[in-house]
């Protein structure tokens, strides 16, 4: 890259960084240098085929889903998707059943007569096909529905959330548990979005294609510190915003995840791609990767997911922790960011927001629109 003033720097080769780099390179025809600390592209969406031919999501299951035509159309330039629609099962009282809790779950876990009585009351009190966050669902007057709400709270949310976030459900932002509402429906899917699926050749390939442009150069194993003082045209920073400002107001907390991988000499380990264990064990869930692209192998690979605090230098950042005091701290950094004239923050870590992949893409598309 000749003159650095003509070059845009993108820090982080994850999905957010790849989208913005791609847009700058293709639509503006400008040069982009993408750097990443990791030794691979695609950030936490990174996947690879292992020696058994199974596509492994190194940083946990990534299931694409969106209602946004714009996001879907943009991504379809780089990949076709299969028609995988995610379902989650979990063990409640040792019974393998559907999560989110829905009418099918109700009939799986309770005797028929009790389930019918509860179903009737639910239909009297809620509209069919509505989604009710657990913290709302607990506000019941009817004794039977109170019993049901307590059951769902205790069996699905309390222990899982304590394992995942280190605190009780009422101590994390309501939006977090609202991602998995009580669903007054027989729809067992985890998401109801119009578009859902897994990229046929995996996420890494999608990101590779986004970055495959004569205007884009990618440097892996590269720290932003080495570029901090250089005068780029613009900087798009998808790392954690507190790190950019040398933690001057303190560290933004994150949850991290530790995946314990196991390979089994059998075709399948469990009945479903994702099995939750809300009440048992120290892990939250088990992922079995071959389901996502229907990979054929005599072996199968699973990952047990253990949640832990993020510690600098020890593990990776996965989840911003949405709660008031963290938002206040983030806002201080955001105030600093507003003073920048050529530095833009985006992505889960740059925005400190619990984005799904489609929201990360949408955010990058919108940021680019704003630039134009
Ligand atoms: N959750 C829960 N029990 C479950 C599944 C989810 O309590 O069986 C809660 C938990 O607090 C979790 C949140 O709902 O962090 C969001 O779950 P989701 O599956 O959307 O999390 P992600 O896949 O992003 O880790």
What would you note in describing this structure?
The protein is 32% helix and 21% strand. It is of the alpha/beta class and 372 residues long. It folds into two domains: 4-80 and 198-250 and 320-371, 3-Layer(aba) Sandwich (Rossmann fold); 88-183, no CATH class. The strands form five sheets. Strands 7-6-14-15-16-13-17 form a seven-stranded mixed β-sheet. The protein has a five-stranded parallel β-sheet with strand order 11-2-1-12-18, with helices on one face. The protein is globular. The two termini are 23 Å apart. Uridine-5'-diphosphate is lined by residues 90, 99, 156-157, 160-161, 164, 176-177, 179-180, 276, 278. Uridine-5'-diphosphate (UDP) is lined by residues 90, 99, 156-157, 160-161, 164, 176-177, 179-180, 276, 278.
- Bound small molecules, deduplicated: uridine-5'-diphosphate
Tally of structural domains: 2
Can you identify the CATH class of the largest domain?
Alpha Beta
* Average of the residue pLDDT scores: 97
Strand percentage = 15-25%
- Judged by helices, strands and strand pairing, the structural class is alpha/beta
- H/I helix tally: 12
Q: CATH H level of the largest domain: which superfamily?
A: NAD(P)-binding Rossmann-like Domain
Q: What's the shape?
A: globular
Instruction: Identify low-pLDDT runs.
Output: none
- Give the N-terminus to C-terminus distance in angstroms: 23 Å
Alpha carbon gyration radius: 22 Å
- The proportion of residues forming helix, as a percent range, comes to 25-40%
In which order are the strands of the major sheet placed? 7-6-14-15-16-13-17
